[in-house]
What does this fold into?
Amino acid sequence: MRPGMKKTHRLVFCALLSTFAVALSYVESLFPLPLPGARLGLGNAMVLLTLITMGGGAAALVLASKVALSALLFGTPLSFLYSAVGGALSLAAMTLTGRLRCVTPVGQSIAGAVLHSLGQVLLAMLLTATPQLLLYFTPLCLLSILTGGLSGLAARLCAAKIERFAGR
It folds into this structure.
């Protein structure tokens, strides 16, 4: 827990960020991208924002809430699986790169977006026994760099504004 942040404050803040993550995931589903399965990653920006302002444990809770509620409200069991695998790899990448002083939130988000896409492609290869799906990773990776950079920029700008509410 961050210094100065009470348990109730932390719980409420996590709930708010989870709500924003689910809402943004729904909003981004209304704007299809040119590649099948590709998303803007706006909900993941809230996971990164939580990681920056509250740490890894809280970010994992926000991610789990986003994945479960998004699948329950407007997804499928298969979308839950893809989102969970991609989200776990993404959070791991953002957490590890966040430990490097030279990596900004934009870099963290790009690493997370690329690994999110890689996780989903690898899961699709496993479920369909189609190794050729790895070819889809190249265009998806390029799009991930762009959308991850934008999500990281959004998270960085938001973090600068809300740090005092997050207990930092």
